[in-house]
Write a structure and sequence with these properties.
The complex is a heterodimer of chains A (780) and B (330). By secondary structure, chain A is an alpha+beta fold. Chain A contains 19 helices and 36 strands. In chain A, strand 29 and strand 30 form a beta hairpin. The radius of gyration of chain A is 42 Å and the shape is elongated. Chain B has two domains: 89 residues, no CATH class; 229 residues, Bira Bifunctional Protein, Domain 2 (BirA Bifunctional Protein, domain 2). Helix content of chain B is 41%, strand content 20%. In chain B, helix 1 runs parallel beside helix 4, helix 2 packs antiparallel against helix 4 and helix 5 packs across helix 10. Chain B is rod-shaped. Classes of the chains: A alpha+beta (780), B alpha+beta (330).
Chain lengths: 780, 330
């Protein structure tokens, strides 16, 4: 909603308020200022009158004008097509400096002296009102020739754009904003005069008749105007340009200008559209009824002319610039059309936004304003009286007490202040009993229905800045919910991942269905799928974090990184659209920085190093062979991850085909069910005070045997003196044939004594015997 | 004998000294040789001969020990010197990772409210109409429910458009008093320079007995919170409108870039809008069947906070895993 200071001034005296003050007030009463333009017209630009205008003897497009600027008459050469004798114009006199920096000097244009410049609106830094120079008139107030333009409040104006919240339909007009400002400044609202019904006018009843069905929630009021010679005043042209709402015709301009000023929905119909037959004495008939979808519709016989509050049909509009016009002001409660539109959406016209937010219900304000303009700026005849239809309206009444108000606000505001604010806002204060009273809400405040709405009015006019802040005193209650521990757990694992060199990423939870299917992932069931995805590449909910990480790794490699280390913890969706949290890692490229340590040649990341990094984040893990269900993994370097024997995710080397597709180097990926990671308090186990011993055991192992099997046999048969064991070397040689030599290191320690050689030997023998018995393994 | 003192003194390596030690103290060394000679010495001379010999032995031993320490120290110094490094070659850049600025900002917000006794609550991203709209006083024909804004699924479920449904869920399964925040991802069907289809919010709700919770309380905590997040800033409340609160306000801070002078970031207003808040609308309490309560609620966009705090210019870069951005947070 754009307003200007001079426009507001038509309804509230704010000449004394500076632009900053005005903006501050608007912001504090909840009308957020979005943009401010202060028009500044330079000095030495004065009002002038073109007393003579002749073609330049030597230039086709130039005119030589004599311009009266009060003190003297100046000769000015002007190139504008619309310059002519009799115009009132803006003249930049010698010495003026234009907003673009041009300094006005006496010059000769093709041999003719010129002392000044006749200005267009844009040359003065005003809005673009169209081609040519400004044609000024008394609509911007009386002016004297030679008077500085900068003294004129309509030209040297301030434009303020307000971002209205959806509830404030009452402020969608200059009148409405002024009305709210009146409450803020405790100043009276200047009323719009009633149009005088002069006797000699013919009554509207002679030309128009209205019929309607019952029970329609609409207000309508009609007037008839015989339109003749509209001379659109300069102020309307200027202001419609300021609010960026240029209209097609002069009639449309006056109509829209009146609606914008007063908030009343005004439409003009071609009288002939409603006329039944050609006979001169036949009246035009307007009938109003409900259409098949339930909308209140204006008909001419059976042709729809408009749908109240929604749109006007193109063919009912006035097409010629003169002739008999039916002028209509309408109002329909916004909740009725919002509901209808939600149920049966239909195409709507340019005024729909206003009606859906609540237009001005006092119809005569709009009609009177329009008629007032028409009487001033045209030769039209206005028919006497009007035809109207009024709905049944019961006002909104809210009862409230001072205590209610003060407990919601949290400050003591006295009754006098409260009643004054409400009265200034146009509320009627009814009976009061002690601290309680009844408030009637004016009809234009569609947003007010209950106590808290009333409190909001008090809050915004008292000003939130004037409410002292107060700490809340609480009842003790333990706030440590599951959500808090989930937050702490996330924090723990995220920090661990970052400490291991991984960067945290956040990706959209959307993925591309085609890609997912191509890689063998199952997406959510078709019947549960997204109805309105935003783009094709984000058309389903992700079942995995891996694709997001792959894309990110790929673009990072392209921007010059030799290694990329990323992780994400985020939500994924199952086929039944169940949400769960996953944690995923990707490592692509070099295993370390290239530099002095490796003579500039870093090794590529490898399986074991990646596993170690992941383990540093999530704890001790076991890996077993995995048959991947998707095609991202290289099946020969692919593992299930076990944590305390429970499967928690997968880890693999990226398949070389996919690697090429994403332009990546050696890449490793791991994805884990985040909920399966532990976040328990540690329970300390007994630990030995005695010395530990180390023994290596080298056994011949068939290549087909997995270490996991050996590990299981040792675990099942070891004595408690073996606290740890792990493979340290795998040696393959032609001489060993189908076998390899595997060296396993054992750490032995007793809780009760220092182990003797014979203890160790017997323990190792037990292990060796078990390996021999269960797997047929022998010492190398 | 004298020459051996000189030999010990002039030994120039531990190895050299060891050879001298063998030559003096060894089985066939000169001391052994001298003691052998004693057999042939006359009895009356034996005592003085032995005494002299023992004196030599003692002095040579201590001289040897001294010289050994000197030589060992010298050799250690030389060995270390041989391994001298140009340490400046090893200046390095970190290989640490980093937390994402949006997540890190969310953590800071959660920490603040946790310390102010708010519980942390979560809820699903896939929501139903009741929790996301209806219960929040967004009736069926409210413009904010337009298809343009909301992602719907084929079975009439939707992706939550704000974290507010978590308020409803929490109120439905617990009794007042409630002090909670709900951090999480939310979704709107909007994708351009300043909008992404997914972003993050933190929602706050406080509910207590009727008449206990006031706008003044809301003002207090938000002013304190914004100073914790942004440092010493001015905080301004502007009346505004949200369907689920009444009275409602938007909260601005004085521009952290130009300190209120007016710049491009604050659109020359000197203020930055950072929060929405208000007193909970009675219709919301009605929807969860709470009676005789009062409460306040607030909500904020985490990306906006992160972008302002860290001077990040491009919203979309936050969702691209771009290391050029992320590595700056190490």
């Amino acid at each position: 909603m754009i307003v200007t200071k001079s426009w507001l001034n038509e309804f509230i005296s704010i000449e004394d308020k500076s632009c900053d003050e005005l903006c501050k007030t608007l912001n504090s009463i909840g009308l957020e200022v979005d943009r401010v333009v202060e028009y500044k017209i330079p000095n030495k630009i004065v009002f002038g009158h073109v007393v003579e205008c002749e073609k330049h003897p030597d230039a086709e497009k130039l005119n030589v004008c004599k311009v009266d600027i009060g003190t003297s008459i100046r000769q000015i050469v002007c190139g504008a097509a619309n310059v002519r004798k009799g115009l009132h114009v803006a003249v930049a006199t010698v010495g003026a400096i234009m907003p673009n920096g041009l300094k006005i000097k006496p010059v000769k244009l093709r041999g003719v002296e010129s002392e000044g410049m006749i200005c267009s609106a844009t040359e003065l830094g005003l809005v673009n009102i169209g081609e040519g120079i400004m044609e000024l008139d008394s609509s911007i107030g009386e002016f004297k020739l030679g008077q500085e333009l900068s003294e004129n409040e309509y030209l040297q104006d301030t434009l303020i754009e307000i971002e209205l919240t959806a509830n404030r339909g009452d402020c969608l007009s200059i009148y409405g904003v002024a009305r709210d400002l009146c409450a803020a400044y405790s100043r009276p609202l200047k009323k719009i005069d009633d149009a005088q019904d002069i006797d000699r006018r013919m009554g509207i009843g002679r030309v128009l008749q209205l019929s309607h069905t019952d029970g329609l929630n609409v207000n309508l009021r009609y007037k008839a105007v015989d339109v003749k010679e509209i001379k659109l005043p300069f102020i309307i042209t200027l202001r419609l340009a300021q609010i960026e709402e240029k209209q097609k015709s002069d009639l449309d301009s006056v109509l829209f200008y009146s609606t914008y000023t007063t908030g009343v929905i005004l439409r003009a119909y071609d009288y002939n559209f409603f006329k039944d037959g050609e006979e001169v004495d036949k009246k035009a008939k307007i009938s109003l009824s409900v259409d098949s979808l339930g909308y209140a519709t204006i008909y001419a016989k059976d042709k729809p002319a408009s749908i109240v509050g929604i749109k006007q049909c193109e063919n009912s509009k006035m097409s010629s610039s003169e002739g008999l016009v039916i002028l209509e002001a309408s109002y329909i409660p916004p909740h009725i059309i919002s509901k209808q539109m939600a149920e049966n959406k239909i195409e709507n016209g340019p005024l729909f936004y206003r009606t859906s937010r609540g237009s001005e219900p006092k119809l005569n304000i709009g009609l009177n304003y329009f008629i007032g303009l028409f009487e001033k700026f045209s030769e039209s005849d206005i028919y006497g009286g009007n035809i109207e239809l009024c709905d049944q309206y019961e006002g909104v009444v809210v009862s409230i007490s001072i205590d209610d108000i003060n407990s919601i606000i949290g400050a003591k505001i006295d009754k006098t202040t409260i009643t004054k604010i409400l009265q200034n806002l146009g509320f009627d204060i009814g009976k009061s009993q002690g601290n309680s009273f009844v408030v009637s809400v004016p009809r234009y405040r569609h947003d007010i229905a209950n106590k808290q709405d009333i409190v909001e009015e008090i809050v915004r006019l008292v000003g939130i800045d004037n409410i002292p802040s107060k700490p809340f005193t609480l009842k003790e209650k333990n706030p440590l919910s599951d959500g808090y521990f989930q937050f702490k757990k996330l924090r723990k694992y995220r920090n661990s991942a970052a400490a291991q060199g991984f960067f945290e990423t956040v990706h959209f939870v959307f993925n591309e269905k085609v890609k997912l299917k191509e890689y063998g992932f199952t997406c959510i069931d078709e019947s549960l799928e997204l109805l309105n995805p935003i783009v094709n590449t984000l058309d389903t909910m992700r079942p995995t974090l891996m694709l997001g990480l792959l894309n990110a790794a790929s673009s990072n490699i392209k921007s010059g990184y030799k290694d990329v280390r990323l992780f994400e913890i985020g939500t994924v969706f199952s086929t039944s659209r169940t949400e769960s949290a996953k944690m995923a890692f990707i490592y692509s490229g070099d295993s370390s920085k290239d530099g002095i340590l490796n003579s500039g040649k870093s090794k590529k990341m490898d399986f074991g190093t990646f596993v170690q990094l992941v383990s540093n984040v999530i704890g001790d893990i076991d890996l077993v062979k995995n048959e991947p269900v998707h095609s991202l993994a290289n099946p020969y370097q692919s593992a299930k991850i076990l944590l305390d024997g429970m499967e928690i995710g997968e880890l693999y080397k990226l398949h070389p085909v996919v690697q090429d597709e994403f332009d990546l180097d050696e890449t490793f990926i791991c994805e884990i069910d985040f909920d399966k990671l532990s976040f328990n308090l540690v329970e300390v186990k007994a630990y030995s005070k005695y010395q530990a011993s180390f023994r290596d055991l080298s056994v011949l192992v068939p290549n087909s045997l997995n270490y996991k099997d050996i590990q299981n046999v040792i675990s099942e048969n070891k004595t408690e003196e073996i606290v740890r064991f792990y493979p340290v070397d795998k040696y393959e040689d032609e001489k060993l044939g189908e076998n390899a030599s595997l060296t396993i290191r054992f750490v032995l320690q007793s809780l009760t004594k220092t182990l003797e050689d014979e203890d160790i030997t017997s323990t190792m023998d037990t292990v060796l015997n078990a390996l021999n018995e269960k797997l047929g393994l022998t010492l190398r | 004998m004298k020459e051996w003192y000189e030999k010990i003194r002039s030994a120039n390596s531990v190895e050299d000294l060891e050879n001298i030690r063998i030559a003096i103290f060894g089985k066939k060394g000169i001391l052994a040789e001298q003691f052998e000679k004693m057999k042939a010495v006359l009895n009356e001379e034996k005592a003085s001969f032995a005494k002299e010999l023992n004196t030599h032995k003692g002095e040579l031993t201590s001289l040897f020990n001294e010289q050994k320490i000197i030589l060992q120290t010298k050799e250690l110094q030389e060995a270390m010197k041989a391994e001298a490094l140009d340490v400046s070659l090893y200046s390095t850049t970190s290989r640490k990772g980093a937390l994402h600025p949006v997540m890190e900002t969310m953590d800071r917000i959660v920490e603040y409210f946790s310390s102010m006794n708010f519980s942390v609550e979560t809820g699903p991203m896939v929501e139903d109409d009741f929790h996301n709209f209806e219960a929040l006083n967004l009736p069926k024909y409210h413009p904010a429910r337009d298809m343009q804004d909301t992602f719907y699924f084929k079975d009439e479920m939707l992706l939550r458009t704000h974290t507010s449904p978590v308020q409803i869920r929490t109120m439905l399964h617990t009794k007042p008093p409630i002090r909670m925040i709900a951090p999480g991802a939310v979704f709107r069907r909007d994708y351009d320079l300043t909008h992404t289809p997914m972003f993050h919010q933190v929602e706050g709700l406080l509910v207590d007995d009727a008449g206990k919770v006031s706008f003044a309380n809301l003002k207090y905590i938000l002013e304190d919170f914004l100073k914790y997040m942004f440092g010493e800033v001015e905080v301004r409340f502007r009346p505004s409108f949200f369907p689920f609160t009444e009275p409602s306000a938007e909260v601005d801070i004085s521009c952290i870039f130009c300190h209120g002078e007016g710049c491009r970031v604050c659109s020359h207003t000197g203020w930055l809008e950072v929060l929405g808040c208000g007193i909970v609308d009675p219709n919301v309490f009605k929807a969860v069947e709470y009676e005789d309560v009062s409460g306040y609620a607030f909500g904020l966009g985490v990306e906006r906070f992160a972008m302002l705090i860290h001077h990040i210019g491009d919203l979309r870069s936050l969702f691209e895993g771009d290391v050029r951005l992320l590595e700056q947070f190490q």
